[in-house]
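I have been asked to look over a protein record a colleague put together. What it holds is a sequence and that sequence's fold in token form. Please read both lines and tell me whether the tokens look consistent with the sequence. I do not need a full report, just your reasoning and any doubts. This is what I was given:
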Amino acid sequence: MTPAALRTALEARAHALGFAAFGVAPATAAPLAGARLRQWLSEGRHGDMIWMADTADRRASPQGLWPEVRSVVMLGTSYAPALDPLRHAGNPDTGVISVYAQGKDYHDTIKGRLKQLGNWLGSTGNDLKVFVDTAPVMEKPLAEAAGLGWQGKHTNLVSRAHGSWLFLGSIYTTAELPYDAVHRDLCGSCDRCQRACPTDAFPAPYRLDARRCISYLTIEHKGPIPVEFRAAIGNRIYGCDDCLAVCPWNRFAQASADLAFAARPDLAAPSLAELLALDDTGFRARFAGSPVKRIGRGRFVRNVCIAAGNSGDAALLPVLVGLAEDGDAVVAEAAAWATTQIRA
């Protein structure tokens, strides 16, 4: 099979498996990504994500992770929402969970599809490795190099067809495949994402300070959330979609028909009162199969306590007073803060 024929067949199989975007980049693509990563790390903007620094050399380039790789196949899966992701912002009774986490855990779903695609590619005599999110791979610069879209001013990938709503996965392979052209930046003078950020997490366009990002603070950060950001968090209890949701390119995105990522009714607008009452067993049962489960009950209830404090709802005081004695010190501190906020 010629390289062109192999690529055509691979792309057809990718679409059949549910991937909405497909592109190929050389293993030497995105040569500046490594230097930008190291600058970002040197400025401390990765916060507590120590693994970013620990894996910097492998993350900086595909060949740094796997010297034998010749082509990088980048794949995108749409999770574009049918409804406005910001419709529940400021609702004092409910928490807001990021769109990507309202359905099944994308890590498992996409990894399974990548493995199916990889099995077929492997049957043609080529070696390969598949990755989704958790590996030291620069997915967004590589996706731009493979023509899937461009890395926008909010630092996430933007697609002309799918807006800011693509899950990314990659296949590193020894196969020599025809490459796509690098996608050009189409952000222009737009700065909606910069202005939409509640915590001013963008020191400049195309630069993110994770330490100020609500997604980082509510998901990756393990300790108490800095007091200076708590009011701005509002009722966001897992992640934040503000910079993604305001992107004008979203108007071209069709709501995803992929049932794996359809919002679960109990996660679309969950009650703060119900979530505050979760013990560890209840948390694991409520979020089984969801990416939310990955952060554990402690971090999650900490987030809910912050939202409860911002709600001003005195009806939540009894459960918050109880949580102020929680065995998890981070939960207890957040509950005590929330109690003080409501009583103020």
About this structure: The mean pLDDT is 96. The beta strands are 21-26, 71-78, 96-97, 128-131, 150-151, 157-158, 166-173, 236-238.
